Amino acid sequence: MRTDGAPAMERTFVMIKPDGVAAGLTGEIIGRIERRGLDIVAIRKGGMERAVAEEHYVEHRERPFFGELVEFISSDPVVMLVVEGQGAIVAMRTMMGPTDPQDAPPGTIRGDYALDVGQNVVHGSDGPESAERELALHFGVLVAA
Ligand code: IDP
Ligand code: MG
Predict the structure, then answer these.
(1) Is the CB–ligand 1 distance for residue 130 below 6 Å?
(2) Residue 52 burial (CB < 10 Å; 0-12/13-18/19+)?
(3) What is the value of pTM for the model shown?
(4) pLDDT (tens digit, 9 = 90+) per residue, 119-130?
(5) Is the domain covering 9-139 a CATH 3.30.70.141 domain?
(6) What is the C-alpha separation between 2 and 141, in angstroms, rounded?
C-alpha cells in the first residue's frame, strides 16, 4: 500500500525474450506498455552475447537452471527496452505476471502468452538497484541515470 503519495518517475529494463520475439509478440507487448501510459525511451533488437547474458542473470549463477537460461537468452534475438514512467518498475512486473506462467492470471503477459517457467516471454527489472544495473549493462550509464 502507498502511504507517501504518487510513485516516483523511474526507468526499468524490459526484455522480450527469444520465445516472445519468435512468437511475433513484440508489437503486442510494446502496445501493452504504451497503452498503460509508460514511455519507451530506447529500444534495441539483437542477439545477446553469452557473457552479457551471464552477467544479466548473475544472481542466479548457482541455480540448476542457470546454464539452460543463459543458453536460451543468448540463442536468438531479443528486444531490449528502456521503459520510463511513474512507478515503472512495479507497473511492468504487475503487467508481466508471476515468474511461472502456470501461476500467472489472464490479463498478464505471462498469463496470456506463456506456459513454461523457462520460456516466459518477458523480463523486467525487479527493483531500483537491478533496474540501474541492467540498464547500465545493456544501454550504458547515461540511460541508467
Ligand atoms: P523473473 O524473470 O520473474 O524476475 P527470476 O526468479 O529472476 O524471475 O528468474 C529469472 C528467469 O529464470 C525467469 O524469468 C525464468 O525464465 C528462469 N527461471 C526461474 N526459475 C526457473 C526454474 O525453476 N526453472 C527454469 N527456469 C527458471
Ligand atoms: Mg528476476
Answers:
(1) no
(2) middle
(3) 0.95
(4) 999 999 999 999
(5) yes
(6) 30
